Structures are given as C-alpha cells and as structure tokens.
Amino acid sequence: MAMNNDNILEVRDLRISFGTYAGEVQAVRGVSFDLRRRETLAIVGESGSGKSVTAKSLMRLLPEANTIFKGGEAIFDGRDLLKLSEKQMQRVRGPKIAMVFQDPMTSLDPTMKVGNQISESLRKHLGMSRAKARERSVELLKLVGIPNAEERVKQYPHQFSGGMRQRVVIAIALACEPQILIADEPTTALDVTIQAQILDLLRELQEKIGTSVILITHDLGVVASVADRIAVMYAGKIVEMGTVRETFYDPQMPYTWGLLASIPLPTADRSQDLIPIPGSPPDMSDPPKGCPFTARCPYAMRVCPTEFPEYTTFSAEHKAACWLHHPMAPNVEPPARVGGTR
Amino acid sequence: MLRYVARRTLYMLLALFVIISVTFFISKALPGTPFADDKLTPQIRKQLYEKYGLDEPILVQYEKYMLNVAQGDLGNSFYFESRPVSQMILQRLPVSMFIGVQAVIFGLVIGMVLGIVAALRHNTLWDTLAVVVAVLGVSVPSFVLGPILQYWLGLKLGWFPIAFFESWIYSVLPSLALSVFVISTVARFIRTEMLEVMGQDYITLAKAKGLSGLAVILKHVLRNALIPLVTVMAPLTIYLITGSLVVEQIFAVPGIGEQFVQSIVVNDYSMILGTTIFFSVLFILALLIQDIMYGIIDPRIRISGAKE
Ligand SMILES: Nc1ncnc2c1ncn2[C@@H]1O[C@H](COP(=O)(O)OP(=O)(O)OP(=O)(O)O)[C@@H](O)[C@H]1O
Ligand SMILES: [Mg+2]
Fold first, then answer.
1. What integer best gives the mean pLDDT of chain B?
2. Residue B25 maps to a domain
3. Model confidence, pTM
4. Domain span at residue B101?
5. How many Å apart are CA B141 and CA B131, to the nearest integer?
6. Is residue B30 part of a domain?
7. Phi, psi of A285, rounded to the nearest 5 degrees
8. Given this model, what pLDDT does residue A340 score?
9. Which of A15, A17, A18 to mutate to test the pocket of ligand 1 (most atoms within 8 A of CB)?
C-alpha cells in the first residue's frame, strides 16, 4: 500500500452497512477517494446518500451495536484507520483527525463550561496543566472570533447563540491542530449570513493551521468558494469527482446536473426557477443493482438499471460514473440551466 | 438566587398554613375524642376539656393553635400525660432519620450501580436482570418485603436481628426494606437517562475529542444523566415518610412513624396534628431543596438566568 506523498488520507472501496429491523441498510457501497495535504475536499449529496456515515467511519464513531463493516481501508499515516484498536483510535481523534458536527445546538455538553470542553482535549492529548489549558482555551476562542473570550470561557453553552456555539465546536476541533478536519454540514443549521461567516472562518483557519478539510454538505452552493475538489455522492457511491471548476463548468452526469440546477443563483433570475430533482433516492436496504439514479434520470437507458457504470476519466482529477459516456450511448447535452448561465 | 429562595420560602409558608388549617379542621370534624374513656366521670372530662382548651369555640381554638404553632409550639400530647408534642417528635427523630438516610444511601449506591450496568450492557442479560430487580422493587410493597427480609436474612440466615433498635446492626433490615423502592426508582431512572444521554450529539463530540470511554461516561454521560434524578427527591421523601409508618411498625423500630401510628390508634389529636405538620414541613423542604439543587446542577435552568 504505497501511499502517494501528496495524500494525507486514502480511502479505498469503503463499505458500511447497518443491521436494522428492516434488514441490512447498505449506507456506503464502495467509496474511494484521496485527501490531499492542505486541500478542502467537499462531499456533496442529498440526504441519506451516506456522507455522514463515510465521515463517522473514518473517526470510527459509528454505533457499535448495529454497524456492519463490510470492507475497505482508510490509510492515514501509513496505518489503516479501520483496523486500529479503540485505544489507538483515541490518540487519532482530536490531535490527528477532528470533526465538526451539523447541529451546534446539540453538539456541546450543556452541563459543562465551554472552556472546560475545550481544555479536555488539550489536557488529554497535549498534556497541558489546568491553568495552561485554560489560557489556551481563551486563545482558541479568540482565534475563532468570539469576542470577550476571557469571560466567555466561563460560560455554559446555553449562553451562546447557534453561530457562536459552532465557533466553539470549531475551536474544540482545532484545539490540537489536527491534520484532518471533517466538517459534517457545519452550516446547515445556521442562518444564511452566519453560514458565510462560519465558512470564511473555516477557510481562514485552514490556511493558518494547514489542515486538510473534508467538508460535507448537501448544498453545492456552499462549496464553490471554499472547496478545491468535489466528490458527488449518491446512494452510497461517489458518482462524480473533480476539481470545483470541472464539476461546476463541465459536469458529466445527470445527477450532478440536477444538483447544479437546484442551486439558487446569486443573480436571482426569476425567469429561471430552481429545479429540484424529481423523485427520491432509492431504499438502501434494497439498493438497485445498476446505477442507483436510473429511476430519477431523464436520460436513463436500458443498460442503466442492469449494471453500475465504470468511471470515465476526463482529466487527471475529473471522473464520473455514467452510461452516457459509453461509446455506444447517444450524445446528450446537459440542460441549459447547468453550465450555460455560468 | 436570593430573591428566588425568599419567594419560594414565602410560598412554602403559605402552603404550610393551608395544610395546618385543613388538618386542624378535619381532625375536629372526626368522630370520637381522646377522652372518650367510659371510666371518666363527666366532671373529670370537663376538667380535661378545660385544660386542653377544648371547651372554647372552634375558631378560638384555631386561633390559639395557629399562634402557638407559629412560635414552634405544637401543644401537648393528649395521651402521654401532657408531654410536649414537639419534644416527643424530636426525641424519636434520630432513629427515623438514621433509618431513612441509610435507606437513601443504600438505594443510591445499589440503584446507581444497577442502572449504570444496565445502561452500559444495554440489551444483554445484565440489563434484563437489572430491569427485573427494578420492577420487583417498585411493585412489591414494604409490608410484604419486610417479613420476607425478616424471614430470610433474619431467621433463616441469622445475619441480622429482626426487631427493635439497639445498635447499628438492628437498622440494616428496616433500611433495606425501605431502600428497595429507592433502589428500583434510582436504577430505572439512571438506566433510561443514560441511554438517552449516550445517544446525544455532545457525547459523540466528546468521543471525537479522543477521550477514553471511561472519561466520556464519568465526565459527560453520568453528569447529564444524574441531573433529572434530582426530580425524584420530593417523591422519594414522601415514600420514605409513608414507608417508615409501615416499616417501623414491622420491625418495631421506635421512630416517628411508629409513634404516629400509635397516636392514631389512641386518638391523640395534638400528636396526630403535630406529626402531620412535621411531615409536611419535611416534604415542603424537600421540594425547595430539590428546586434549588436543580438550579445549581443544571446551568440550562439556572435560577437567576433564563427561567425568569
Ligand atoms: N445508526 C444507523 N442505523 C441504521 N441506519 C443508519 C444509521 N446511520 C445511518 N443510517 C442510514 O444510512 C444512510 C446514510 O446515512 P447518512 O447519515 O450517511 O446520510 P447523509 O448523507 O449524511 O444525509 P444527511 O444529509 O441527512 O445528513 C441512511 O439511509 C441512513 O438511514
Ligand atoms: Mg449527515
């Protein structure tokens, strides 16, 4: 498993299922991607596509009770994260890989002062004294742009607004300057104006600390200004992957077209309404054999439901899985709303 | 915080006033008198009535009684040769307190262990076992459990004496009988709360910080799971009071409960009234402490803060 030195993380053929009463839910069905040093990789997809499961499996935070690890590897620092012991994993979480969750209102322990919640990892991983950790917590709060940090460390989460809480969560995540930061929909629960602030903050801190970021979102609009590359996920698979430019200007499969068409344009052209993708994602306890998007795809062909397509490569970074790129497929142009207006 | 306590104290006094008044009039309305003994001549009875002020109009009696109570004087026992009621209660208090507090300690320790084990070993045999114990504990009344303990641990195994109160060892069985309800209440509470808390995002975040499993449980899960336990404090106090009436009777413990039952048997009104007031004060105090503790432990509902 020789690792490309540009990559800090290499995920190969990750497969995760859950045992449920309704049967085995195949949440992630063979996901592969690389994370480069200092880059921001966005994972985009509708609700239920397996983004959070992918992220949590890297941190090994999925519930032990019903998670079924079906296979794959995640090489970090020359080791497969998926095979580490719980003890080894505890030394990875925090100082090596950290995570920011979706809902800042529920991410913080309501009974503990925010300063202590930041100090916890400093003391555990960096061996700081209580006083030193407290000092550092104040610095971290300042770093994430919380005014009055000396006072604020002594306060409880309920004394913070949603945006401020997410800043605290980011401070916790960055406390030990991790090599990878996984942000799972860090702005979804926040107001639009606050969303932009938090994204700016993330980007700024990433430059300062030099971490690699996996940014998970279901909103393609969010990633354009923040990410370097985009992986589009659908029904537990990555269906398209490329640089932000490539994915936005030259998308290669109908699901990505659909996602792009559903972004509100900043130029607010009322004559061109948003087009949500009709239909809903497949039931993952009985996923379709072929391309999972077939049922909702306006260009579906006879071959689509029978077999999942191979990836077609368009550039060093850009690839997509779609039967439309088979030599025998008809030539289909993306709809005008996608690409044309940009 | 101070204003809150002051206001709560005012409400408490108000509640107490109502309770005492109601108890006073109900006891007057009850049939029978403490001096119904046939051997008493009408003259002696009249003297007794005068002595205890029972010949005066009821409102005058009420006024006098309330004024006395306000000064901490609960009057004299009708039955025990005019010994002060408050003195009789205080005399019996240490024994009852000891058994009650010990029952709470038993209950908290055993209940927490059971609850924690059940939550951490959720859906295993341990969990089921703990739940069965908990359900038995709330559903078996102490007048059934008391004799069972006496038979098993007392007579059969001979570990503990089964009646009276002469040294610590005598307190074990009564406390145990009282504590079973506490054990099961606490165990069920901790189990449910821990399971609930362990599914919260902030626990995932605590794990994501790289804390060890034990640290997550001790610092985050337990702390959050224990807070709602404060809310059972008042109901538990009620239970301990009513439970003590039965348990002290069964184990012949010379406590307040046993005395209360006796005073009912002999129609000792001032004693009944006094003990009722005492129990009410105890309960209202428990409510107040419960509220204040809740405010201290859980910053979300800090009394001085958001709730106002
Ligand atoms: N603990 C679990 N037990 C059973 N099924 C689960 C569990 N966690 C996730 N799933 C299922 O796995 C699938 C993928 O879930 P995941 O949370 O990764 O979606 P997502 O892409 O993050 O969506 P969202 O945008 O809503 O967060 C869903 O069908 C979900 O129901
Ligand atoms: Mg998610």
1. 84
2. no
3. 0.81
4. 85-301
5. 17
6. no
7. -85, -15
8. 44
9. A18
Mutate to test the interface with B, among A89, A111, A125, A177 (most CBs of B within 10 A): A111
- Alpha-carbon span A213 to A202, nearest angstrom: 9
pLDDT score of B307 more than 60: no
B306 contacts in A (CB within 8 Å)? 158
Ligand nearest to the Cα of A50, by number: 1
List, in sequence order, every residue forming a beta bridge with A31; answer none if it has no partner.
A14
Angle at B77 between CA B75 and CA B78, to 5 degrees: 115
CA of A204 to the centre of ligand 2 (A): 24
pLDDT of A245: 93
Interchain proximity B209–A108, CB inside 8 Å: no
- The CA distance from A261 to A273, in Å, is 9
Kindly list the averaged pLDDT for each block of 10 residues, start to end, along chain A of length 342.
Answer: 78 96 93 95 94 95 92 94 95 95 91 93 94 94 92 92 92 93 90 85 88 91 88 96 94 92 64 71 91 92 93 95 91 71 40
User: What is the tens place of the pLDDT at every residue in A140-189?
Assistant: 999 898 999 999 999 999 999 999 999 999 999 999 999 999 999 998 88
Residues having CB within 6 Å of any atom of ligand 1: A 18, 20, 25, 27, 45, 47-53, 63, 66, 218, 284
Beta carbons within 8 Å of B64's beta carbon, 6+ residues apart: B53, B56
Helix (H, G, I), strand (E, B) or coil at A33: strand
Q: For chain B, what percent of residues have pLDDT higher than 70?
A: 93
Nearest-angstrom CA–CA distance, B110 and B117: 11
The structural domain count of chain B equals 1
| Residue A163 backbone dihedrals phi, psi, to 5 degrees | -60, -40
Q: What is the pLDDT of residue A342?
A: 40
Distance in angstroms (rounded) separating the CA atoms of residues B132 and B36: 50
What residues in B contact A173, CB-CB < 8 Å?
208
The verdict on a CB contact (< 8 Å) between A110 and B202 is yes
Contacts of B159 (CB under 8 A, 6+ apart): B153
Q: Closest Cα to atom 5, ligand 1: which residue?
A: A18
Report if residue B92 sits inside a domain: yes
| Best of B120, B195, B209, B220 to mutate (most A CBs within 10 Å, chain A) | B209
Tell me which residue of A223, A150, A161 sits closest to A189, measured CA to CA. A161
Helix (H, G, I), strand (E, B) or coil at A330: coil
Q: Could B209 and A61 be called an inter-chain contact, meaning their C-beta atoms sit closer than 8 Å?
A: no
Is the residue at B308 inside a domain?
no
- pLDDT for B305: 41
Which chain A residues are closer than 8 Å to B219 by Cβ?
Answer: 112, 120
DSSP A2: P
Q: What is the CATH number of the domain that holds B122?
A: 1.10.3720.10
What ipTM was estimated for this complex? Answer: 0.88
